[in-house]
User: Fold this.
Amino acid sequence: MRSRSLSPSVPPLRALCLALIAGALPVLAGSDWQTDFAAAKTAAKKDNKAILLDFTGSDWCGWCIKMKKDSLDQKAFLEFADKKLVLVEVDFPNKKKQSDAVKQQNEDLQKRYNVEGYPTFVLVDGDGKELGRHVGYLKGGPSAFVQKIEGWTKAGSAK
Assistant:
C-alpha cells in the first residue's frame, strides 16, 4: 500500500484548504462549550478564569442563533475565550435532547441568576458570583462582546 503525503503534486488550493483547517482546529478545540456548571467552576478556579454562562434556546431562538453565528463562533471570540473563559451553555431547546440532570441544572441556574429571556449572558467567577450580564443580541460582533466581558472582569476585580 502506498502512503500519500502532501507534496508538490497536491493541488495548491487543496493544500491551502488543509492548512487553513489545521490552523483553525486548535482555536476551536480549546473553546468548547460545556454543560456541567460544577465542572466549569472547578476548571475556572484551577485556571484562574471567569465563567461565561450562555442562556440560550439553541434550536429555536433567532437572536440566540444570530449571536452564536455573529460573535460566539468567530475566531476573535474563541481565541479570547480560550485564554480567559470557561464557557457554559445553559440551553433550553425545543428539539435537542438533554439528560434529566442537565435539564434540572439549567432550570436551577435560570432561577439562581434570574434569567427571563434569551439570549442572556452572565459572567461569573469560580465561586458563581455574578460579575456582569448582557440580555439580548449584542451588535458589533466578537470585538464588541469581548470588550463588554473585559469591562465586567475589570469592574469585578476592582471590588
